[in-house]
Amino acid sequence: MVNMISLKALRPGLPAVIKDIDNKLDRYIVIKRGKPVAVMLSPEDYEAMLETIEILSDKECVKRIKQAKREIAAGKTISLDNLRRKIEKS
Q1: How many CA atoms are closer than 13 Å to the CA of 68, on its beta-carbon side?
Q2: pLDDT tens, position by position, 55-90
């Protein structure tokens, strides 16, 4: 969930904000004089965003993802058990 909080409200409320970020993976946009000046989020959330950016900036990876989606839509899938057997044979 994304929350907006003023810098003035953030100062005394920082412990509660950190708790929300840590426990609920909430995100906060910090506002100063009506304008966003910072974003607060968990390290896990930040790492996930960086990973997503990295994947989406790799054209070959995006092509493979699109191809996989087409194959799934066409029913070209295998069960988890069959996949395990296939891997074990390798």
Answers
A1: 7
A2: 999 999 999 999 999 999 999 999 999 999 989 987
One-letter amino acid of 69: K
Contact indicator for 5, 13 with CB cutoff of 8 Å: yes
Domain spans of the chain, in order of start: 1-43, 58-90
Specify the CATH number of the domain 1-43: 3.40.1620.10
Question: Which residue is it, tokens 């909430």?
Answer: 26
* β partners of residue 30: 5, 38
CB neighbours of 39 closer than 8 A, spacing ≥ 6? Answer: 27, 28, 29, 30
Structure tokens at 81: 């058990």
List of residues 6+ apart from 41 with CB closer than 8 A: 21, 25, 27, 28
pTM over 0.70: no
